[in-house]
Structures are given as C-alpha cells and as structure tokens.
Amino acid sequence: MNKNDFALTPPMGWNSYDYYDTTVTEEQVKANADYMAKHLKQYGWEYIVVDIEWYANDAGTKRNQYQYIPFGDLEMDQWARLQPSPKRFPSSADGSGFTALAAYVHSLGLKFGIHIMRGIPRKAAEQHCAVMGTDVTADAIADPSSICIWNPDMYGVRNTQDGQAYYNSLIEMYAQWGVDFIKCDDICDSRLYQGEDFSGWHETEMLHNAIIKCGRPIVLSLSPGPAHIDRAWQYCNYANMWRITDDFWDQWELLKVMFWRCELWQNHVGKGCFPDCDMLPLGTLGGGFGNGEWKCRFTKDEQKTMITLWCMFRSPLMIGAELTKLDDWTLSLLTNEDLLALLGENCTGIQIVRTDDMAVWKSKNTKTGALNVALFNLGDTQETISVDLPILKEGLDSGKIYSLLELWDKTQTQTKSGRIEAEVPAHGVKVFRVEA
Hints:
This protein is an alpha/beta fold. Helices cover 27% and strands 22% of the residues. An 8-stranded parallel beta sheet has the order 10-9-8-7-3-2-1-13. A 6-stranded antiparallel beta sheet has the order 14-15-16-21-18-19, covered by helices on one side. A 3-stranded antiparallel beta sheet has the order 4-6-5. The protein is elongated. The chain starts with 11 loop residues before the first strand and ends with a strand. Strand 9 (241-243), helix 9 and strand 10 (274-276) form a beta-alpha-beta unit. The longest helix has 17 residues, at 161-177.
C-alpha cells in the first residue's frame, strides 16, 4: 500500500473548526454530515472532519480566558491515548471511541476524519501511563522540551522504537474506529522551533509509518503553516496534504498573499501530494468562538477569486461554514462543476504572471487537452485584464479566434487580437474555458 493511493485528487470536505472552534458535538457533526450527503456529495464532497479538542470535557467553558484550557479535563485510556469526550460525543461513553459516529458518516456514503495534536498527552507522562506494545511508560517517550506554544495538551514523542510503538497503537486505534482522514497539528510548522531539532520532522515520518503499518488508507494532513519549502521532499514523502499558510480567514489581505504562496508551491502538486491553502471561510462562521457568529466577510467577487485560485492550484477544499446554514449563493460556489473539474487527476495548474495588481493562471487537462485560463484582478478598482495567447504556450494560434466560456456566469465570448481579455471587477476573477 502506497500513501499516494489514499487521495489521488485533492480531498474535499467539511471541517468543524471555523464555526465551532473546540466545542462541536456529535449531533452537530451528524447534522453537517446529513447536509453534505444530501446537497454536496454528488459534487465530490466527502470528508467530515471533527477538529481540535474533541477529547476535552471542558472545551469552551473558559472561552473569555483560554481557547485551550491549561491542564484541562481530558479523556484518555490506560494506554495514553486520548478519547472522545462522552459529554459531547455520547456514543463514545461505552469506550468505543468514534466507532459509532464514523459508522454513521460511512452510512451516508461519506468519510470520517479527526484532528489530532502532535505528540503524547502531558497528562499521560505525569501519570506514567503504559505504552501499548512496550515495557515503558509515557514519561519515557515524552519529550518535555518539545511543546506547542499555543496548545498545552501535549509533549513531543522521542524518535525511538518505543516512541514509534506509541504512534502505531494510536493509529491502529483510529483505524479500528473507522477514521479515514487525520489532520495533525503543530507538525507542519512550529512557532517555537525552526531548525533541525524540531521533533515534528521525525514525528511526521512516525505517523506515516504507523499509517502504512495499520493497513487502512488514512489521508494525512499536516498543520499549521506556513510549510517550509526546503522541506517539500519530506511533506511529499510522508503526507498527503500540508498547510502553506497559517490559519486562513475571510480577509482580503490574506487572500491576496495566497497568490505568492501558491506560486511558491505550484511545482509540488502531484498525485496524493497537495499543498493546502487551508479551509474555505464561507457562509456562516464563528459560532463557537465566544463572540457570536458572522457571515463571510469576503465580497462575492472575493469569494469567487478564492474558489477559483484553490481549484486552479488544486488545493484540498475544506468548508469551514456551518453547513445547515448555507445560503443559496454559497451553495452555488461549492457546486460549480466546471470549477471543481479543475481538481481532476489529469489537471495541472500553473501561474503564468503575477504583479501586485493582477495574476493569470492556466489549468490544462493532460488527458483531454482542455485549457482553462483565469484572469485575476488583485487591484482595488475594476480593470481590463488580458493575456496574449502565445504566453500560454499551448499551441494556440494568435491569428485564430477561439470561443471562450466563462465558468462563473456561463457567458460565451471570443478571443480578441490574439489575446484573452476581460473587464474584471476589483478583487475579482474571470475564468475561461478555451474552445476551438
């Protein structure tokens, strides 16, 4: 079994973080899964991912002081493995973990995922919990000098045979639960450790080895970013997706800089290996963060820009909204089959040009030859954006007129004077399929 068999195309799904933060419950996960199965599955959306601190009984109870409560009330088994909070996930009260919830998600024809933190619980090291498959206890494999600066739950795991045994037991348990996707945090980048001594590097490989050993195809996603370009070889060898940015939210400044990030990583997109632009902060967000929910702060043009860039680049797509509150506009963004087709296994996207005010991307299907070109206006006023056909280097004849189908509004136009040209609104995009 090869890790590249786990996700031949960018994973598409929903993640609980952008709306629920640390507080999502079993019933809320089921409600979002129900919505996805009914409205989104037919378009390729399939993963339901429970994000951070599903094991914390007291998550969100001190939100005015802490996002992650120090030395909180965490559920854990005798082998130092965190378990779902039965207060929030009642089907786990019998000790079966996420087995029932994963089975429910699977019954809808979807796949189930969880968020984990790199390492072993500090609570396990303090209590000298046993490590399955070894003669040692958790304190022997825990590395107290390897911590996460923003989450107090874990110590790093030492790069030893016993440390690998811990990860093996962890992943084997997840496989028994029916987990299809793991988002591991504090492992792709660290705010504390930037050098070779960061244990996230060897822990990534340990996770990969454990997944291969368990025999279940589990997609491995690494967070947070920005990923290190000099570590591209490692991400490609041991993970399926990795974050190229810190947490991405609905602010134009964060979206504009993604063009630079995608340019940096565009040559590392491949089968089973996807640089990750992070979640799509669309629709209704923030209900679990303690300050009230809000509607996506991107303009409609900015939302189309985001979806187009993510698809052209072939980033994984993870919806951050509360799905049951999706409006028709947001649903239309997430079900545009022409744009989603750019994620296909035979598609390759590349940036042709970028300035401070504009960018041009192209995507070609190497099997069908289909060519799509996106004209992005990164400026603050409406502008005419164009690209000469020879720059696309696709054998296009600058003396020939080609038909153009705009993939958002479905209007038909033509090339003009050997170029693709359009009036593009501020922060907006026009994306064309080039037709002979």
